[in-house]
Design brief:
The complex is a heterodimer of chains A (342) and B (285). Chain A has helices at 54-62, 89-95, 117-128, 133-146, 163-175, 193-210, 221-227, 245-250, 255-262, 303-307, 330-339, and strands spanning 12-23, 26-38, 43-47, 70-79, 82-83, 100-103, 181-185, 213-218, 230-235, 238-244, 313-316, 319-321. Chain A is of the alpha/beta class. In chain B, helix 4 crosses helix 10 and helix 6 crosses helix 7. The chains are: A alpha/beta (342), B mainly alpha (285). Chains A and B meet through helix 2 and helix 3 of A and helix 8 of B.
Chain lengths: 342, 285
Amino acid sequence: MKTLHTAGTPLLEIRNLSVVYETDTGVVHAVDDLNIRLEQGKTLGFVGETGAGKTTTARAILRIIQSPPGKITGGRILFEGTDLLSLTDEEMRSIRGGRISMIFQDPMTSLNPVMPVDEQIAEMVRLHADVSAEEARARAVEMLRMVGIRPDRAGDYPHQFSGGMRQRVVIAVALACTPALLIADEPTTALDVTIQAQVLELIKELQKKVRTSMILITHDMGIVAEICDEVAIMYAGSVVEYAPIDPLFERPLHPYTRGLFRAIPDITDDSTAAIEVIPGTPPDPTDPPKGCSFSPRCSRAKDVCFEKRCGMREALPGHFVDCYFPLLEEEDALARSEGGAR
Amino acid sequence: MFLFEKNSNLRLTLVRLKRNRLALLGFAILLVIFLLAVFADFAAPYGFSKQNLRARFQSPSMQHFFGTDEFGRDIFSRIVFGARISLQVGFLAVFTAMIAGGLLGAFSGYRGGRFDNIVMRFMDVVLSIPTMLLAIAIAAALGPGLFNLMIAVGLSTLPRFARIVRASVLSIKEQEFVEAARAMGASDWRIIVRHILPNCTAPIIVEATLGVAHAILSAASLSFIGLGIQPPYPEWGAMLSSARGYLRDYAYMSIFPGLAIMITILSLNFIGDGLRDAMDPKLKR
């Protein structure tokens, strides 16, 4: 199905996407001028702290942002070359689940408690394929087997499964129609550490089997390193750094990304030194700073940073960063941070 | 039907319900009344309108269990046939009110915004009128008769269902599985009917059970003041109404229809209370 004719256009391209939530206390700029590209068959990690706009971006792609208060105020979301924001509701419904599907964070709440799990998978199948009830059910059992659930448990209700098993069911639902893009929103956050590894392994394996691209939302750098091909670091509603996994882990260019890496404790390090933290807190989304969103917390910020956002630049080949002064030279960077700000 | 599958949630509810003696008693009594109503033709020793002027005002005896009325009609037979009408009015009126009010409430809760505001403010207006008065007004406008009685009773209870369903929809639509269903590409109608409503059956069932009791009482009251079932059809309220002239001399004429109303409503209330306790999520596990 996925032939070379799509090789020219990326599977997903988001251009200048902005999403706001209009609340009583003000307009929250949840996603602000976000740009991203995802090639066919790749896995893109979305990393950022709580409130950085990761989930909002995912919901914007599927157009399931609660409205009101949410609103997509600008930009384009090009999926296989068509702008999803221009589709009618009906066209969008066939995309959801059929071409793009989503795994939600908490398997405890993302399954319908009064419907047997096979029926929930079968419903997905019947929404997108013209099949009979029996065929849909057969497909459901097959999907359950694929995620490692015995067929005799197909008719069970969600509460009869453990958290990890439920997440397997959720994965089965998401992949039942072999979508071109799978969005996994922190699929392991609600699970035990031991189960996390299993579920990640399963996602990785199935992703290969059904040959789908994936956006993985997480705040766990370890998971990113294990699964993703590319990483987008999000901060305060936009992507600040975007690169293939190796360059990014080897040499983070954005001061925020570097701060993130420095905040990861090193288990091989015996010293009792405190973890390095990034001073300050993320900006108030109802009143974002005028210039670079990270400037108030950045030790390297100069006047220009407070005036105007830099915008994405290709600092190194394939490595994009939204910073006037990317950390190209480590020594240089240190010198500047010590001499410049104070 | 999602309710009758091996839903273990339902099974749990039944287990808890079984421990409730009063609810079981209510079920037993209601079952008897229901069977009497269904097999009234066989259960009743006399026809409901068969007069025997030589046997007027007979006290309860082996021949006439509950005695006879001013036309010599057997009161027991009339009560048995009356159960048909009462149950019919009660269940059908509540059923239609539940479907119509429930869907209205579900949609306005799900959609929210302007539609919700208009529908619910209208419901508030209706709710501000006392139920009985509203039923009287509708029945008076439509004229007497079984069908109109059902409409009057049904319309006057409809807003309660709309409110209850809306309230549960509001809390359930925020849950993640509803969003997951949207992300699956399900339409609004499908999400409401397949995903949201099955999750708010508990309050609906409780309200419906108590609503049936209320509807039977309303129907009896309407018939009592002459706006419901017309003679010679035996409606419990109408029987009370015609017996009230003989209250001093032949009290049994009003006691038995009154008892029939009371027992039916009491057992429905026992069931309703039992169901409410059994379905209370706080008591789970």
